Amino acid sequence: MNIIPLSMEQEIAGRVSRIAGELSARGMDAILLSDFANLYYTSGRVFCGYAYITATGEVTYFVKRPIGLEGDNVAYIRKPEQIAEMLGAGKMPGCIALEMGRSSFNEIERLKKVFPCAQVVDGTPVMNSVRAVKSEFEISKLKTCGIHHETAYGNIKKVYREGMTDIELQIEIERILRSEGCLGQFRIAGDTMELFMGNLLCGYNAETPSPYDFAMGGGGLDESLPVGCNGSLIRPGNTVMVDMCGNFNGYMTDMTRVFRIGEIGELARKAHSLSITIHHRLATMAKPGVEAKALYEEAMKIVKDAGLEEYFMGLKQKAGFIGHGVGIEVNELPVIAPRSRDVLQAGNVIALEPKFVIPQVGAVGIENTYVVRDSGLECLTNFPEEIQELY
Amino acid sequence: MNIIPLSMEQEIAGRVSRIAGELSARGMDAILLSDFANLYYTSGRVFCGYAYITATGEVTYFVKRPIGLEGDNVAYIRKPEQIAEMLGAGKMPGCIALEMGRSSFNEIERLKKVFPCAQVVDGTPVMNSVRAVKSEFEISKLKTCGIHHETAYGNIKKVYREGMTDIELQIEIERILRSEGCLGQFRIAGDTMELFMGNLLCGYNAETPSPYDFAMGGGGLDESLPVGCNGSLIRPGNTVMVDMCGNFNGYMTDMTRVFRIGEIGELARKAHSLSITIHHRLATMAKPGVEAKALYEEAMKIVKDAGLEEYFMGLKQKAGFIGHGVGIEVNELPVIAPRSRDVLQAGNVIALEPKFVIPQVGAVGIENTYVVRDSGLECLTNFPEEIQELY
């Protein structure tokens, strides 16, 4: 099969061109990629090997596996050392960018030797910044995710049965998502995050801090994966926050909604409403040129004015952000955090998740995925935002 | 909560002592770990931070998240640079081992600066070799996994319905596994492997090569995760190979079984029987002191003698191994491959998976997880090995 289907060719050409422009602007001659998310971005499929992209806009795919990929720019290799001979002495870069923020130290040291005369620099920021601005093709993939995500969430109430534990409900939601076409895979950049198909938090468990840098925590079922469901019964007076995987096609939307059993009290209702208020406020404020940290500051101002700061983004341990870029991975740029240096650009896709943890009740607040447009945010996850009763 | 529950203290002390011994033997003064699998191994839980272990057997846990962990050897930090000041000038190592095969280049460069006067060496092999020999405590966790894994596989026939696609069956098996307590998380070392909760291969799809270094492939449902189910109907004459996640407690067993619809023909039956024959032969041959590559060679000899080489370990693209260590991660040492330098040790836990792909029929062969004992292999995955009919 051809490594890039004809329908994808123009899209990939656009991405490669943007990477080439970024390389040029930074004085880099070429970038060598091996991370799956970056290979998928630059070829439209995951393979084992390397994508080599020059500042002049040429791309070569050095493939180890699978066999059978075809294309003018496909070259099969067994090991990266062959890349140098295949490029030829006349085409070796003077300055090569490598994925120093993603590949292991040993892998980078090995790749450095492939380019013995080159200056070696970190290409991670190049890819992160290019990928942060989505094309309309990518946005259409994300829209598709949003539609499936909404359909799946619409079935959550149907699978709830009285007396369920949190994990029992999560397993049924996993099945709903998978049956709707969710690939399950939850791609996260970096080594300090892991999660199985999303997080469902019920009642008191929402107060338990986790090792991970997610917005919310939970104790988990096992010390080997201490996040999310802890096996507790869903009781009257509890909220159930559902924040589960929206990866339906290699891209993913991020959406959180809250359900309840019985009455959850005024504080929880007020905090949930405030989350929706924050979304509405940020949706008009977030435009190209606005600093990401300004969104965080605005959200914090609304929270403080309402006197709900102590519950915001966790109780004992607080998350340090209220939103993040999302696309192929769940933690892309821009980061909506107080010390973020990111500035919003048209085509950024961001998940906003101003959330609260209410003692004894559970987590409240919503998360939506938005595209940054010239006029503000366009929502990709259109599902009722109010707390719904499970019965 | 205490970072190490009392019941785990002795077990962790044993692991730390073995790491210390290995550091001593290699002339290293200390090792600094941050990979989740290694943190889990050395503390009994996943946290965000570092475990610092000296050749004299002292361990300190430098914790970033979650808040609330307690213990004499727990120190909270915000960033790794604080480790140096907390150790104190008199206790800085002369030679420090870092996880150069796991952590990113940028992370290692940052950690190097924490120990500016130290010789920095790769500690990845230290941890890989220590973790390859399981304690009886670890083996008991793996036995528990095996029992749950068997129970779950025993329910597969109950969820099959005529006219199902491969992914529809996989989703039902995922639910069975999760309901049996499977954590879902499929831990794999390295950046070149990914899989969602295991692989189910039906019929012709088993012939499609994947980018990943698994024993079997499959086309997958999407170019972003090209492995496993491709959505095809399960038809009479097909085999269905089920190789799904056995992680029930942070450790995981690896088990493959084959089901069929209708008649699959003599060749497929013969190849499946040969896989069982190979298991029985290797189960008596695999003892401490035996070279891992000798197991591979013996398996290849049996396959060649039977004239089934062309179908062995894939058709178009062949896997280069027939087994691998398994424990916290699915690709631990020893590797059962032709150029493996590993020698079996008592307490190794290995998954053997001599498998065949039969054209038009599908994949056959079994996989079991075994402990290497002085007398040979002890099986942890005791489920009927013959091909079972789905009806």
Task: Give a verbal description of the structure.
Two copies of one chain form a homodimer. Chain A is α+β, with helices and mostly antiparallel strands. The first copy, chain A, has two domains: 126 residues, 3-Layer(aba) Sandwich (Creatine Amidinohydrolase, Chain A, domain 1); 257 residues, Creatinase/methionine aminopeptidase superfamily (Creatine Amidinohydrolase). Chain A is built from ten helices and 19 strands. A six-stranded mixed sheet of chain A has the order 4-3-2-1-5-6, with helices on both faces. In chain A, strand 9 and strand 10 form a beta hairpin. In chain A, helix 9 packs antiparallel against helix 10. The longest helix of chain A is centred in the N-terminal third of the chain and has 20 residues. Chain A is elongated and about 70 Å long. At the A-B interface, helix 4 and helix 8 of A face helix 4 and helix 8 of B.
